[in-house]
Amino acid sequence: MRYGMVIDLRKCIGCHTCTVACKAENYTGPGIFWNIVKDQESGKYPLVRRVFLPLPCMQCEDPSCVSVCPTGASYRRADGIILVDPEKCIGCGYCVEGCPYGRRYLNKKRVGYYGKGETPNEQIGYSQHETGVAEKCTFCSHLVEQGKEPVCVKACPVKARTFGNLEDPNSEVSQLITSKKGFQLLKELGTNPSVFYLPA
Amino acid sequence: MDLERQDTFGWLISFEVFLVGAGGGAYLFGFIYHLLGIYQRIAKIGMFTGICLVMIGAVLLFIELGKKRRFYRVAFNSSSWIARGSWFLTIYIVFGLVYLSSAYAGYLDTYSAPAKTIGVIAALFAICVMSYTGFLFGAIKRVPLWNSSGLSLLFFFSSLYTGKAIILLITAFLETSSNDALRLMAIIEFILIFLQMIALGSFLGAAVYGGTIVSESVHLLIRNTLFVLLVIVIGLLIPLGLLSYLILTNNAFRLAFPASIFLLIGGFYLRHGILRAGIRLPVSAF
Question: What ipTM was reported for this prediction?
Answer without folding.
Answer: 0.89
